[in-house]
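Lab manual, section 2.4: Encoding a predicted structure.

Procedure: take the sequence of the chain (939 residues), apply the prediction step described in section 2.3, and record the output as structure tokens. A sample record is shown.
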Amino acid sequence: MADSSSGPASFWTQANALLRKNLTFQKRNIKTNIRLVSFPILLCVLLVVIQNLVNNELDKAENKCGCISVPNENGQTEKKCGIQYSTLDQVATCPIPSPPEWPALLQVPAPEYRAVRADFIQFTDLPDDSCRRTGSCPATILFTGNNRSLGLTLAGNMFLSSSSLNSSNILGNLSNFVLGSESMPETTNFLDPAFFSDLPIYHVEPQCAPNSTFSVSFSLASTNVQQEVQCVQGLHLWRNSSSEINDELFKGYHKGNSEGKINEIVAGIQCYLQLVQGDGVKMVLDFIKEMPKPETQVRLDLSSLLGTLFFTWVILQLFPVVLTSLVYEKQQNLRIMMKMHGLGDGPYWMISYAYFLVISSIYMLCFVIFGSVIGLKFFTLNDYSIQLVFYFIYINLQISLAFLLAAAFSNFKTATVLGYICVFGTGLLGGFLFQFFIQDTSFPNGWVIVMELYPGFSLYRGLYEFAQYSFTGDYMGTDGMRWGDLSDSTNGMRDVLIIMFVEWLIVLFVAYYIDQVVSSGNGVKRSPLFFLQNFLKKKPMSSFRKPSLKRQGSKVFVQMEKADVSQEREKVEQLLFESGANHAIICDNLRKVYPGRDGNPEKIAVKGLSLALSHGECFGMLGPNGAGKTSFIGMYQPPGTAFVEGLDIRTDMDGIYTSMGVCPQHDLLWETLTGREHLLFYGRLKNLKGAALTQAVEESLKSVNLFHGGVGDKQAGKYSGGMKRRLSVAISLIGDPKVCINFCTIYDSILLCKFFLNILPPVYFLWYDSWNFWKVVYMDEPSTGLDPASRNNLWNVVKRAKQGRAIILTTHSMEEAEVLCDRLGIFVDGSLQCIGNPKELKARYGGSYVFTMTTSSNHEEEVESLVRHLSPNTNKIYQISGTQKFELPKQEVRIADVFQAVENAKSRFTVHAWGLADTTLEDVFIKVARGAQAFDVLS
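Recorded output:
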């Protein structure tokens, strides 16, 4: 197998490996991508279909210009169309070669908004504000000019009394009067809204006489319209200059917007007068009209009317996709797997962020291009550069927000559900709540900006502005939003862009910080001031020595420890003083206590573990179920610590993680990647390149029997359980088959596994130095699921890997423990009960032979007498149907005497079977575990 390269992979090598893996993963999920992109496309198509259905309805005869059939001079029926034959609902489509004339209308304030005296206006000739309570305030009109007397004379000629109105030519006579309306002007070339609204038309007179309100009737198309004209008193005030008029107009409007004291004035008229016909000259407000127009069709741009809500859903759909992907990697421990194989935080964040950004950009590009191709005005009328900037900033903000919220979820299904609730909830709240605040001019703009701090509302506001400009542009036949429009005070796009850009930078920074501090995938939590660690002086290992357990109130516990366990604890404390230079692993007094809940007392799950492993040593840990192993595994930053090659897990995890290689017993694989693609990815993380990488992958596949038959090119999701296990083994072997072996389960309750994964990863990894040798190996049931031949081969590899390396092994196979381990420790009830090599443990806790003999039932007493003669302290442990089993103390029995006694017995009665066996490691394990549990019950 190819050797690995000299040293850990560089930043760009790691980034290249992750990028290639992501691109391959994306290629494998082409169907998902098609479904994702098809959503906005189908939505645009749906809008077009609805648009065509609406247009077909609008094209019906009742919605077109009115027509009637009349007989002509030849007696035949002739169809005539035009405004005169149309209803008010039909005139919008009629050709208008000569638009009707309408009298000019001033914008007259409503009674409650008319100008009165105020502290922000210097003039005192305005009425007192008491007139607002009675609705009798006059409509103020300001005048100025070079000749005051002539100007006032002309003003008097403008404001005539309604008594002179000639009803025979009502529209012509109305041009002689000053008319006004509260209604806002609209874009129409046929009907002024003031003549067809619920708001009255005002006739401005010098003084309103009683019963001065009158009605006027006129014809609009084929409809007779009657409109009420109310009298309003006009207050004519002279100002010395146009600057005074402008100042008064501005102050009244400005104060009204900011403080609710609207102080509106009808108009300011500047008269540059010339004496033409003497003082009797008369000022007439001439008619106004729009431009002629041809026959048109009534059309409704649904993309602008409905696009704000629908397109909000389209863009927000990306959020749960990104969030789910991040949480899935966290939940399945895929990120920590990559990290333990050498992937740093820098490459992970850079490539993951860029990956989601490219995917989102392609998604949005397809959305805009398709919407433009099918002719949606929402896209075609608005400036594409503004759209590009808006969408680019928002998708960056959305991705940053997904990274931030990923730290709050531990289950990707929960994240998916809440993500889509956020999508649809944001759209509905925007459409049925936030939009009303935007449209309400009396609602403070500052609160609208506060609401836009929520990214979903920022998105909605931006799309709303696009929709408004495209709808108006389509109706008016003009362009949509342009860069110059962003300076418009009513355009909220500029505020939205600023808010989203600032939030993008802040959220991205906070997301990275939280990712490091709360450990959303890194394996361990970091100090809130981790970014200052380079400025802090690192303490030597000896400085972390803690007080002994006796000083912590655990005197009873220490006194009841076995001598071998106490000796190990003392050894650890001594090594901490000496910096432990010759030991690969040092664990110092690890402890875990669960607080009491629901009236239950607190539970000491781990009572302190001290352990030291030197290079070249394989240490095996055994323990029954319920020994506190799960709690021990799941501790985060427990009291005590551990050192690996002198590095403290509390401060040096970044350096430790760069050299980790892991093969978990519970296979952590990407379901859509093939076995070969997995090996290519992890091989690149171990700095394999070119031909060496290709050769290493092929040899790894061959070594685990996944090469032939194209098995290595099948997706891992289609593998059987055994094949997945073999692939996980191959991942650990790639790069250096002689030593790169590491097994650990993340979900099983095997002793120390989760603990070393989450808390003491230095013990759960392969340490990689400048000579490419792993110094520490942690193996958890390495032979589980393997056939006898593969298991024997694995044992041989582990034996070779022990040279110069420290290995921690957990297993349920006593045979495996005896073959591989130099020392063993039995972990019961949260603490080590014994420690030593297999022979020492069997001698210490066994100390007896097991003698078994099978005879007929009537010779059982003779057999027992024979055994008692060999040793008076014999203990019978089994008897059934003539078969008896005894424990013989080793110090009282010689093996030769046992053989001689059996030969003598055979001469007296028939012996069907007999045997003499030494104590097994399994016997020791059972005896220690039962003894510890019995002591706990008694205590």
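Check your result against the sample. Residues 272-279, 544-559, 737-774 have pLDDT under 50 and may be disordered.
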